[in-house]
Amino acid sequence: MRRTLPPTTSLACFEAVLRHGSVTRASEELNMTQSAVSRRIASLEEQLDSKLFIRERKRLIPLPAAKRYGQEIARILADIEASTTRFISQNEQIGLLTIAVPPTLGSRWLIPRLNTFISGHPGVDLNLVSKIRPFDFDQENIDAAIHAGSPTWQGAHLEFLMDEYVIPVCAPKLLGDKPVTSIADMSRYPLIQHTTRPNLWHEWCVHFGVEPARSKAGPRFEYYSHVIQAAVTGIGMAVVPDFLVRDELELGKLVSPVDARMKCAHAYYYAYPHRMHGNPNVMAFGSWIAKECQSRPAV
Fold first, then answer.
1. Nearest C-alpha neighbor of 52 from the set 85, 20, 17
2. What are the chain's domains?
3. What is the pLDDT of residues 223-256, one digit of tens each?
């Protein structure tokens, strides 16, 4: 018998009071009476043989050790809730499906297409989270991911989705009355850099035989969405995946000054931990997104 394991309700009350600094607000969140929350806190203090809070005016102030304890409890309660949700969804073949996706890919390409998946799988509640780099599936409450990069991910199964092609783009106003007639002409302009792909301009220059001396200089932005907006604003030239700027090209907000489309070593993959193989929701989403990628029109 685990005599040092407090009741979950007591821990939930403690975490809520710690977060709000108030029994009143914690009781409202937990749908309990104030007296019931206070009794749970007193019971936990008795079990721990230690005070957790001191009262200062109308606010409860956690003691240092209690604050550290509460931070650990908050993480544990969140893990229990996520594990329970996952268990229910897996056993009922419905429920929450958490997918990690690069932020710009998610907002510009994936979300506009999601209606077809949602309408075909009404029992699945999608939860999209942003991730740029591979992570440890065992340490995250994530079922699968769209991976942009090399075909390696430790502890995960990868399924190819589509190749990546990048093109140079800029705002029409950047060119002014000096049109670009060759790739070499682009060296006159600032090159917008993508922080997580710092070698992309260099690779593009080498691919097309352009002197790469200035290929790593220029303003830097972490996300492709920022890179694209910087190009639209006229800050400089950007090299980006072609399918992410389809709308801006069609609307004339961006132009591709030269025909210089490059296939990257990076590609897009559907990734999931081996333990999720056969999960109906993970498999259904993988099948759906593979078809969406195959039907992607060229720019």
1. 17
2. 8-81 (1.10.10.10), 143-279+289-299 (3.40.190.290)
3. 899 999 999 999 999 999 999 999 999 999 999 9
